Amino acid sequence: MKGQEWYQADDVAREYDSKRFSKGGRLIDHREKQAVLSALGPVEGKNVLEIACGTGRFTVMLAERGADVVGLDISAAMMAQGRQKARSAGVGDRIEFIRGDAARLPFPDDHFDAVMAMRFFHLADTPAKFLAEMRRVSKKQVFFDTFNSFSTRVVYNWLLPMGSHLYSRADVERLLAGAGLQLADESHDFILPYGLYRKIPNGIAGELRELDETIRDNEYGEKLSSVSYWNAEVL
């Protein structure tokens, strides 16, 4: 996995949310949460695993809606932020945070109703292995996102401290087939790169987002989208 030392640093964990999801980054946070909820549907009573849960943005959100959630991550510092967030939201009893390796998940086959990973596959050195593990422990559903190879992501990819793996649609289709998964639904978004939104005030970002959505909705928009959300079913 790329940038493990950077990702696990205490100072990175403390500042992670504020740097990425403040200012115009709030729009990114909102859209990603929409994508997760749309894909998973009603989660009350479901048993959900989140791979690379980080600071618990999605873990806590799902627990607040009645899911029993396991959040797995390699960074103890990130999960410490997640535990604090869960306590503040009053859902600490619905979440178990586990430090572990996504390539060797410590769960039996078909254990969870749904398994998800956000902001993970762009860092994965062995994506096929990770996806196969996600499928193994899921009864029904696997959901994840990718950054796309034919997009504005290419422009600033080299600036990222951890690097970033970009995927074509064909790449994703091969991964799904190899893992024994069938694509059920997909959506594509963000013509403009994430980094641009994070640098500007939320009000200006909102106007930029309207432009982004207008471009995305034309006939070429989907192909230019920098982010894709993939909702797959277990075969």
Task: Give an overview of the whole structure.
This protein is α/β, with parallel strands linked by helices and 235 residues long. It has one domain (4-149, 161-186): Vaccinia Virus protein VP39 (Rossmann fold, 3-Layer(aba) Sandwich), CATH 3.40.50. Helices cover 44% and strands 21% of the residues. It has eleven helices and seven strands. It has helices at residues 4-7, 10-20, 25-40, 57-64, 76-89, 127-137, 153-156, 169-179, 194-198, 202-216, 221-224; strands at 47-51, 68-73, 95-99, 112-117, 138-147, 181-189, 227-234. It has a seven-stranded mixed sheet, with helices on both faces. Helix 2 (10-20) crosses helix 5 and helix 4 runs parallel beside helix 5 (76-89). It is globular, with a radius of gyration of 17 Å. It starts with a helix and ends with a strand. The model has no long low-confidence stretch (mean pLDDT 89).
> Which percent range fits the helix content?
40-55%
Uncertain residue ranges? none
Strand content: 15-25%
Query: What best-fitting shape do the alpha-carbon axes yield?
Result: globular
Order of helices and strands: HHHEHEHEEHEHHEHHHE
- Measure the end-to-end span: 28 Å
Number of helices: 11
Quick structural summary:
The protein has 235 residues and is of the alpha/beta class.
Features:
seven-stranded mixed beta sheet; 235 residues; Rossmann fold
